[in-house]
Amino acid sequence: MLPAEVVRQIRRLQLRARRAVEDLLGGEYHSIFKGTGIAFEEVREYQPGDDIRTIDWNVTARMGHPFVKRFIEERELTVLLAIDVSGSHRFGSGVQQKREVAAELAAVLAFSAISNNDRVGLVQFTDRVEHFVPPRKGSRHVLRLIRDVLFYEPKHKGTALRDALDFLNRVLRRRTIIFFLSDFFDRDYESAFKRTGRRHDLIAVRLSDPGEEELPAVGLLEVEDAETGRHLLVDTSSRQVRDEFRGRAEGRRAALRQLARAGGVDLIEVSTDGSHLDALIHFFRQRERRLKGH
């Protein structure tokens, strides 16, 4: 049995996620993700305006007048939440850490999936895949995923995006919607990223914190690399130091945007500043407009 405080945290996140799904996202999740194929539904009599290419000639010959085949889109989808749990995701210069933002987004996406009767699974990774929950349906399953997202304690601190992407390509046999949540503090993953984008509907969710984008001018500041434990003394009173820090952050962001464009991958950029649900909703609406050709 789970401790009472754990249950309360899961329930709080569940309520926030359900409210976002019901009040904000509405039917947009359903409209922006295509089904896995086309399934035969029925044969019915031809009606004016029907596509003559759908005529069932065997039934037409037996009945003596035209009949057509009707097909529907198979709606059942598979959604996979791939979440970076490396050391850098425990960082947060404000109210929330990146891992807490990731948990809220994962909960909203998971509840959106099961509200459409889709399957949803979870991968948590550092410099290796640490935890994998195969996609399934149902509220009990989603509550289990939320618990894992909230309370799983990773064994390692490093990051290996390529290994995580390669794992997804090995275990996911059918086309899957993959939400890949990470700060993308890594290198040499570009080929795996593009390969995953070709095989699946990959949506990259970049998690960031304002403290990683710009240094405050507060004099000497000791910083620690959350993944390697290395300490560094930084003179933040130097404009050159601050400009270089900002420039590197902008360079990482621009490189990821370019990679996503080149790979045909959607990119959602979210921050710990409290705007992460707005960013998710904006993505849903933007993608819906794009699919409608607006």
SSE blueprint and pairings:
Blueprint: H1 4-25, H2 28-32, E1 37-45, H3 57-63, E2 67-74, E3 78-84, H4 98-115, E4 119-125, E5 129-136, H5 139-151, H6 161-171, E6 177-182, H7 190-199, E7 201-208, H8 210-213, E8 220-224, E9 231-235, H9 239-263, E10 266-271, H10 276-291
Parallel strand pairs: 3-4, 3-6, 6-7, 7-10
Antiparallel strand pairs: 1-2, 4-5, 8-9
Helix pairs in contact: 1-4, 1-5, 4-5, 6-7, 7-9
Q: What would a concise description of this structure say?
A:
The protein is α/β, with parallel strands linked by helices.
| N/C terminus separation | 50 Å
The geometry reads as elongated
The largest beta-sheet arranges its strands as 5-4-3-6-7-10
Q: Mean pLDDT, rounded to whole units?
A: 85
The total strand number stands at 10
Main sheet: strands, sense, barrel = 6 strands, mixed
Q: Give the uncertain stretches in residue-range form.
A: none
Element order, helices and strands? Answer: HHEHEEHEEHHEHEHEEHEH
The secondary-structure class comes to alpha/beta
Helix share, percent: 40-55%
Q: How does this model look, in words?
A:
It is a single chain. This protein is an alpha/beta fold and 294 residues long. It is 45% helix and 23% strand. It is built from ten helices and ten strands. Strands 5-4-3-6-7-10 form a six-stranded mixed β-sheet, with helices on both faces. Strand 8 and strand 9 (231-235) form a beta hairpin. It is elongated. The N and C termini lie far apart (50 Å). The model has no long low-confidence stretch (mean pLDDT 85).
